Amino acid sequence: MPKSEYIHLRVAPWEKEQIERRARRAGKTTSEFVRKAALNQTVIETAPLRELTTELRRQGNNLNQLVVLARQGRISFVDLKPFLEVYKQTWQALNSLLSRGA
């Protein structure tokens, strides 16, 4: 639905800074954040997820490098246990963050 109505409100400078900071951490615009908060919708901060997504990206790169080496015939066996352990820990951390609403 198009947004055509405006709500004007005044806030103190420190309130504006806090709202904008929380919106950035949630990965939302200030407008999106305020709308969700005002309508009692859950607003999940995405800042805690950055470390997890960075780790998943690193592990994905490592796995891709191993696949390339295997296709080139430079390696023939890979112990996937360390990868699986990292994925397991990452998923547990992600589920923990999501279950408590980050």
Low-confidence stretches: none
Alpha plus pi helix count: 4
Q: Give the SSE string.
A: HHHH
For the record, the count of structural domains works out to 2
How helical, in percent, are the residues? 55-70%
Mean pLDDT: 84
Major pleated sheet: none
Oligomer classification: single chain
Amino-to-carboxy terminus distance = 28 Å
The structure class reads mainly alpha
Tertiary shape: elongated
Strand content: under 5%
Rg over alpha carbons: 21 Å
Count the strands?
0
Written account of the structure:
The chain is an all-alpha fold and 102 residues long. It folds into two domains: 43 residues; 53 residues. It contains four helices and no strands. The protein starts with 12 loop residues before the first helix and ends with a helix. The model has no long low-confidence stretch (mean pLDDT 84).
Architecture blueprint of SSEs:
Blueprint: H1 13-25, H2 30-38, H3 47-71, H4 81-99
Helix pairs in contact: 1-2, 3-4
Q: Gist?
A:
The chain has 102 residues and is an all-alpha fold.
How would you describe this structure in keywords?
102 residues; mainly alpha; 0% strand
